[in-house]
Specification:
about 350 residues; alpha/beta; five-stranded parallel sheet; binds fructose -6-phosphate
């Protein structure tokens, strides 16, 4: 039930710090070590390549998850949109592991790939919020998101839960492989949960940004580099699905290869700047669009912030910034939809789980 909340989406955004703390609890043993199904650990150790299969928001989580696994555990990862993969299967490595990411566990596009990989006896792991679901039952192993029921059509807490479970899985694999990491996932996730809480207390600022940038906007661009690019894709999806504003996420460096033609006087461009190694270049991209009339909104991370930034995020470990930077984007989408009188929890043309291919 949504209790005192006007919408499930807002309630579910607010639940994110608690979900992260719940995941820390569920995936940690009494010696503060990662607690994970040993079969999952073995499957990760046995594979030479991970194939992540997902749709929509879960696909966006997969893109970030690839970075976790490659950077922490040194395993090559491909991320595929399920609906494309099922008829255009790439060459598969000798020892693949298929990871299905699905909040509902019922998405037909993802299931169709699972049926195919099962037919080939490829090992499979489903990461889902619904352990009894089809994708969970039909895969070899399951990791539970522990996010609690997600009712709003626009996915919020499932995304951050997916990222948390993916980083724990990546660190567990790294440890099992004997890779020395200077990174304690539970400590870093606890810092993330606190940062999320602080952001959820700043709703008025997000509402102001939504009012200022998106009340009359026809379209909106999200730009970022590296992990910020993936979060931009998710921010754009949130905005378009509930506010019906045409929104697209772009890699900061890619805009000038064509799409910059769409920038007009006043076009909102939301830029994320949370990654030290690309801070200089993303700010260059902001200047490029501003010079063509765009109205930039810069969301940066403390430590990388510059004068004039629209909003500064509390600092978290650089790998985990997507868990935090997505929250203002969720809230901006929420308030934009609200200001435009849209049905936030049940946007037009959409269903919570897509059970047709
Ligand atoms: C976006 C959204 C959808 C789902 C997608 C996959 O807010 O809700 O893009 O993420 O349909 O759903 P699951 O994760 O249930 O497979």
């Amino acid at each position: 039930e949504k209790g005192t909340y006007p919408h499930f989406m807002l309630k579910e955004i607010d639940e994110q710090p608690f979900v992260i703390r719940k995941i820390i609890q569920e995936y940690q043993d009494e010696h503060d070590q990662i607690k994970l199904d040993p079969n999952v650990r073995q499957a990760m150790l046995n594979c030479d390549r991970v194939y992540i299969i997902a749709c929509g928001t879960s696909y966006h989580a997969g893109l970030v998850g690839k970075q976790f696994m490659e950077k922490l555990a040194n395993i090559p990862v491909e991320v595929h949109v399920a609906s494309e993969f099922s008829y255009n299967m790439p060459l598969i490595s000798e020892k693949p592991l298929f990871i299905y990411i699905s909040q509902s566990g019922e998405t037909a596009d993802s299931r169709s790939v699972l049926v195919q990989t099962n037919a080939k006896d490829y090992p499979s792991l489903t990461i889902t919020n619904a352990p009894g679901s089809t994708l969970s039952r039909e895969a070899d192993y399951t990791l539970h998101l522990h996010a609690g029921p997600e009712i709003a059509v626009a996915s919020t807490k499932a995304y951050t839960a997916q990222l948390a479970v993916l980083v724990i899985l990546a660190v567990d694999t790294a440890q099992a492989k004997g890779i020395e990491l200077n990174f304690n996932p539970m400590q870093e996730l606890a810092i993330v949960a606190n940062a999320m809480e602080a952001l959820c207390d700043q709703k008025e600022e997000m509402e102001k940004i939504a009012a200022e940038y998106l009340t009359v906007a026809r379209n909106c661009f999200f730009i970022g580099r590296s992990a910020d690019f993936f979060v931009g894709l998710e921010g754009a999806l949130k905005l378009k699905e509930i506010s019906y504003i045409q929104a697209e996420g772009f890699a900061g460096g890619e805009l000038k290869h064509g799409t910059i033609a769409l920038i007009e006087e006043g076009t909102p461009v939301i830029a994320l700047a949370t990654q030290a190694n690309v801070n200089y270049s993303i700010r260059g991209n902001v200047k490029e669009v501003a010079a063509r009339g765009a109205y930039p909104c810069i969301i940066s991370m403390r430590g990388l912030d510059q004068e004039g930034d629209t909003f500064v995020l509390p600092e978290v470990h650089e790998l985990l910034t997507p868990l935090v930077s997505v929250i203002p984007l969720q809230l901006i989408a929420y308030y934009a939809a609200l200001h435009r009188d849209c049905d936030v929890d049940k946007p037009r043309n959409l269903a919570k789980s897509v059970t047709v291919e």
